[in-house]
């Protein structure tokens, strides 16, 4: 029996924006009206951990209220329809999982988890509430958000590169391809692997050889998924 077509999807903040989650960094350099340097760096954590915890506690509640949109649901439906779908996301929300996707790699961590400040292997789910000063791991160290801050390494990058190299089709959704090292993932696909970018600004963002699909995630992804489900393959011709 032939293996099912393997779609690898690389998603950015554009897909979550359609669920009401603001993009990571706005055009003015702010994230939810905060300078990124004040809430998303190791130095910010050292200077003012309370401010950082408050910021992520607010983002966490925003994400809990958000719901998966048509793009999230379409990708999950493709997987349920028999395709092999692996999702690599820059997003720290859980909307892909709540839509039903089972194979999601979070490059930049997961806001609905806490982790130890001294042992990154120690992670704890946050089913409700947030993280406060005095909340500690089993080793007695303060808990912090399980997210990758600017200036920190991306532990799952090698795994993401391996996934991309195995793709029959790489679909990029809602990302400017500007944040490194994630943006370099496209260099790991085989030379003959088709790749498309779904984004309202796709024409200006798409590297050479990448098909630009100038539309929102909520429109473009379901249209592609419906086509692939009807064809039984990942061709666009």
Q: What order do the helices and strands come in, and which of them pair?
A:
Layout: E1 6-11, H1 13-17, E2 30-31, E3 34-35, H2 36-39, H3 42-47, H4 49-65, H5 70-80, E4 84-89, H6 95-99, E5 104-106, E6 109-116, E7 123-125, E8 143-147, H7 157-165, E9 169-173, E10 195-198, H8 202-205, E11 211-213, H9 217-231
Parallel strand pairs: 1-4, 1-9, 4-5, 9-10, 10-11
Antiparallel strand pairs: 2-3, 6-7, 6-8
Helix pairs in contact: 5-9
Binding site for NAD(+): 90-93, 174-176, 217
Catalytic activity: N(6)-acetyl-L-lysyl-[protein] + NAD(+) + H2O = 2''-O-acetyl-ADP-D-ribose + nicotinamide + L-lysyl-[protein]; N(6)-succinyl-L-lysyl-[protein] + NAD(+) + H2O = 2''-O-succinyl-ADP-D-ribose + nicotinamide + L-lysyl-[protein]
EC number: 2.3.1.286
Description:
- The protein is α/β, with parallel strands linked by helices and 237 residues long.
- 32% of the residues lie in helices and 20% in strands.
- It contains nine helices and eleven strands.
- It has a six-stranded parallel β-sheet with strand order 5-4-1-9-10-11, with helices on both faces. It has a three-stranded antiparallel β-sheet with strand order 7-6-8, with helices on one face.
- A hairpin with a 6-residue loop joins strand 6 (109-116) and strand 7 (123-125).
- The model has no long low-confidence stretch (mean pLDDT 90).
